[in-house]
Backbone:
C-alpha cells in the first residue's frame, strides 16, 4: 500500500488500501516509574500511525505499586521526533476520576503520566486510561 499522504495523481486505491489507513495495532508497553519499582501492574495499549502522527491509547491497572513513586512511565510503539510537541491526557477510572497529564520523555521512547496536580498516580487499585498524540521520528 502507498503510505497515507504519499498518493500521486492517477493512483488507484483498493479497498485494502483504504481499510489499512488508520488501522489500530495492539502492543504491550513496558511500565516503569519515576522512582522505585512497581510490584504488580498490567497494561494494554494500541496505536495508529497516520504519516508522522502517532496516536496511542494505554490502559494501566495498578494492583500493587510496590516502592514506585513519581510518574508512571510507559514505552512508546514508535520513537518520537522530540519531547516538546505532544499531548497526553486521560483520567483515573476506578477510584477518583482525577485528570491525568504527561508528555514524551527526553529519551523519545517513553512517556510519563502524572496526576493533574503533578502528584504521583502510583496508588494501589488505580486504573489509568490515557491518550497520547505525538510526532514520529
Residues:
Amino acid at each position: 500500500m502507498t503510505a497515507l499522504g504519499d498518493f500521486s495523481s492517477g493512483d488507484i486505491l483498493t479497498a485494502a488500501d483504504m481499510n489499512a489507513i488508520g488501522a489500530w495495532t495492539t502492543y504491550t508497553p513496558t511500565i516503569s516509574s519515576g522512582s522505585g519499582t512497581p510490584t504488580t501492574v498490567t497494561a494494554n495499549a494500541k496505536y495508529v500511525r497516520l504519516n508522522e502522527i502517532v496516536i496511542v491509547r494505554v490502559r494501566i491497572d495498578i494492583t500493587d505499586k510496590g516502592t514506585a513513586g513519581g510518574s508512571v512511565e510507559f514505552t512508546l510503539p514508535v520513537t518520537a521526533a522530540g519531547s516538546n510537541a505532544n499531548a497526553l491526557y486521560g483520567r483515573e477510572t476506578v477510584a477518583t476520576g482525577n485528570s491525568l497529564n504527561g508528555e514524551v520523555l527526553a529519551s523519545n521512547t517513553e512517556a510519563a503520566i502524572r496526576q493533574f496536580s503533578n502528584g504521583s498516580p502510583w496508588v494501589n487499585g488505580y486504573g489509568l486510561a490515557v491518550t497520547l498524540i505525538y510526532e514520529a521520528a
